Amino acid sequence: LGALIAAKVPFWPVLMLPQGILIVFLFTLLHETVHRTAFETQWLNDIVARFCSLAIALPADWFRYFHFAHHRFTQDPENDPELAFPKPETVRQYIVHVSGLPVWRGHFKTLYTNAMGRCRGSYVPPKGLPKVKAEARAMIAFYVVLLALAVWLKAWVVLTVWIVPALLGQPFLRLYLLAEHGRCPFVANMLENTRTTLTNWFVRKLAWNMPYHAEHHAYPGVPFHQLPEFHRLIERHLKVVEPGYVSFHEKYVGALR
For 133, how many CA atoms within 13 A lie in the half-sphere containing its CB? Predict the structure, then answer.
C-alpha cells in the first residue's frame, strides 16, 4: 500500500486509511515480540520489536517493562500501570480516547522523559534505566534525522505514507484495545479481569490472535499461533467473552454518562 501511495496511483488518498491501520497494528506485533513469542529466535524478536517501535513511536525496551508489570498486576488499581490511564466514562472522554491523540502525546512524552533520564515508573528496575534512556535518545535522533532529510529533500512521502496514515489508523487500534480490559472487574483472576472477543479471521490475523486476550493473560507463554487451539481447551472457564467488537462498543457506549 505504501508503494501505491508513494506512486500516487488513482485515488491514492483512499489507501491512506488501510495503510494507517496496518501501521498502528504493528503494536500487536511489538507486543508479541516483547514477549519473544513471535519468532523462534530472540534476536529476530528483538530486531522486529525495534522496527515496530520506530514505526509507532513506542520504545520497545521501556514497553517490555511496562507491559510485564501490566501482566503481573492486571486490573490491580494500585500496581497495574495501564490503569494510570483511566478508561473513558463519559461520551466526551470516549470521543477523545478513540481519536488517538492522547496516546500519541503519551508516546512522545514517554520518549522525552526517558531521554532526559526522568523515567519514574516503578516497573523499570534501576539497572534498566540506562537502557531505556539510550533507547529513547536513539529513537529521537532517528526521527530528527529522518524529518530533517524529508524537509531538505522535500520528501513529503513521509507524511503521506507514514505520519498521516498513522494518525488516521490510530482510532481503530483504540477501539480494538479498549475491549481487552474495558469494564472488566478489578480482580486477580486472569480469566475474569480480561476479555476475549470473538471476531473474524482478518482481525485475528491483523492482531496476532490477541483477541484471545484472556487466554494470553492466563498463560502468556503460549505463542500467538497456538491461541485458537488453547481457546478451545479453556473457553468454558472464561468469565468475560464478547461476540464481537461492535457488540462490545454498543454496550460500552450505552453505559457512558
Answer: 11
39 phi, psi to nearest 5 deg: -130, 165
Could you read off the pLDDT of 155-213 as tens digits, one per residue? 899 999 999 999 999 999 999 999 999 999 999 999 999 999 999 999 999 999 999 99
Number of domains in the chain: 1
By residue range, what is the domain housing residue 126?
Answer: 2-254
C-alpha to C-alpha distance for 222 and 122, rounded to whole angstroms: 27
Ramachandran sector of residue 256 (left: φ over 0; alpha: ψ -120 to 50; beta: rest): beta
- CA-nearest of 116, 39, 21, 31 to 71 is 31
Q: What is the pLDDT of residue 155?
A: 85
Q: Which residues have a Cβ under 8 Å from the Cβ of 247 and sit 6 or more positions away?
A: none
What distance in Å separates the CA atoms of residue 117 and residue 115, rounded to the nearest whole number?
A: 5
Residue 121 is predicted with a pLDDT of 83
Q: What is the pLDDT of residue 219?
A: 95
pTM of the entire predicted model:
0.94
DSSP secondary structure of 214-238: HHHHH-TTS-GGGHHHHHHHHGGG-
**For residue 197, what are the β-bridge partners?**
242
For residue 106, give every residue at least 6 positions away whose Cβ sits within 8 Å of its Cβ, in sequence order, or none. Answer: 85
